[in-house]
Amino acid sequence: MSLPLHIIILAAGDGTRMKSDLPKVLHPVGGLSMLAHVFNTAARLDAAQVHIVYNPEHEALPGTLDHPDINWVAQHERLGTGHAVQQAMPELPEDCRVLVLYGDLPLLRPGSLEGLLGLPDTALGVLTMEMLQPRGYGRIIRGDDSTVSAIVEEKDASERQRAITEVNTGIIIAAATRLRAWLETLRNDNAQGEYYLTDVVAAARADGTVIEGVMAGEPGDFAGANDRAQLAQLEARLRQRRADELMQKGVRLADPARIEIRGAVEPGRDVFIDINVVLEGNVILGDGTTIGPGCVLRDCQLAPGTRVHAYSVLEGVRTHGACDIGPFARVRPGTELGAASRVGNFVEIKNTSLGEGSKASHLSYLGDSNIGRNVNIGAGTITCNYDGVNKHRTEIGDGVFIGSDTQLVAPVKIGDGANIGAGSTITKDAPKDKLTLSRSKQVTIDGWKRPRKVTRDK
Ligand code: UD1
Ligand code: CA
User: By three-state DSSP, how is residue 44 classified?
Assistant: First the structure.
């Protein structure tokens, strides 16, 4: 039986090169902090526990990952990666396997760690990668028998060693009993005056431990971010990865480089997404759904056949059949749209259900309303749902026709089949099947003359 797995995520660095008040690991990639990405990967590895080493001056950090099972370990001084791991070791059981990850490697996937996790408990595993431009990375030194004999940091490396293109990802795995012993031997007499985790390799070598340098299949998975430019590269990589996933699930993307996926998307078959669409939170797109250019969707569930037209912003929307939204619609939380319904341009709709076949085609605000089936909402209709203190509901029955430029002052009910004359301010319930209107009579003034322009001599 193999030993239980404990994961240590190093996240105490300041990330000075970000030039930011935010700790480096909290910078977002694809809508989630780098640390949250790494934790999510760690959480899928069947570990007995995840330990995160952090700088206690970043007090807000633990609160950003609201997970009761995380063991937060303070590193009071930044004395190097080896020192960081040392802080966590007393918290681990005597006998276990330790996997060390970095909090700034958000593209890590469980699959990218398989080779390392498959090693025998007795070995020291080091995850390496090939880098044509290895600047800044620790170089992997292999002996005559090609096993790893040391890792040399760039600042300590000779000219010859700097030419080596196999580098350290920073990720290692080892038995806790051995790692403890190796960590005891670390010294900081190097170019940076730090306790390097990488020096455990030389220590392991000295006591005859087998060191396995496992080369990563996808070096892109181990890209970190030290500055904003690298952060933007990670963003682009993650965008590409998520776009690929969508296309593999059968989505047609107008341009995989021009979509932003900042959450979890569950697409049906034959979905089409045009350029510059942003998807956030949990988005479910039924079969044959189409999303026009420039749309933003957050936490939406769209039924098969739903068409979202250009430049619409949807949040917390659920559709119950093929319907049309936009262009230029703003649909806010709590909105339910029936089959064959339509929300047109410059319509804002919130906390409202719009029944099957009902239409609000232009320029309206519909808030806190229940709207029945086959209702026509004329242009410029406003539900006055707020009296300055409380919100009130508007109830509109089936088959109602609301004339243009009508205000419905809630709470108010419009009966089935009612017609409301254009330009009305409706403050009382309107009965079913009748025409109701509130409008002053139209008059024409006989003998009226347009005023004439007065000209004065200068
Ligand atoms: C480290 C490795 C290098 C490797 C590279 C890969 C060492 C000595 N060097 O270098 O071989 O190629 O990563 O990216 O390990 N951290 C702490 N406390 C500290 C110092 C660092 O928690 O006292 C954390 C940082 O937050 C970061 C990680 O450890 O998540 C790596 O630290 P960083 O300073 O970026 O190491 P590198 O110099 O890049
Ligand atoms: Ca780094």
Answer: coil
| 197 Cβ closer than 6 Å to some ligand 1 atom | yes
What are the residue ranges of helices labelled H in 152-308?
A: 159-162, 176-184, 200-206, 228-248
Q: Name all domains of the chain by residue range, CATH numbers in brackets.
A: 5-222 (3.90.550.10), 252-436 (2.160.10.10)
Residues of the chain with pLDDT under 70: 1, 458
Query: At how many degrees (to 10) do helices 81-88 and 176-184 cross?
Result: 130
Ligand 1, residue 168: give the atom nearest the CA. Answer: 12
pTM of the predicted protein model: 0.84
Ligand 1 atom 22, closest CA: 12
The per-residue pLDDT for 16 is 87
Strand, helix or coil for residue 49: strand
**Cβ–ligand 1 contact at 341 (below 6 Å):** no
**pLDDT at residue 458, as a whole number:** 67
The pLDDT score that the predictor gives to residue 456 is: 84
C-alpha to C-alpha distance for 61 and 81, rounded to whole angstroms: 19
Ligand 1 in reach of 138 Cβ (< 6 A): yes
The SS3 call for residue 2 is coil
- Told to judge if 362 belongs to the known catalytic residues of this protein, a careful annotator would answer yes
pLDDT computed for residue 183 by the predictor: 97
For residue 117, give the 3-state DSSP assignment. Answer: helix
**Ligand 1 centre from 456 Cα, in Å?**
84
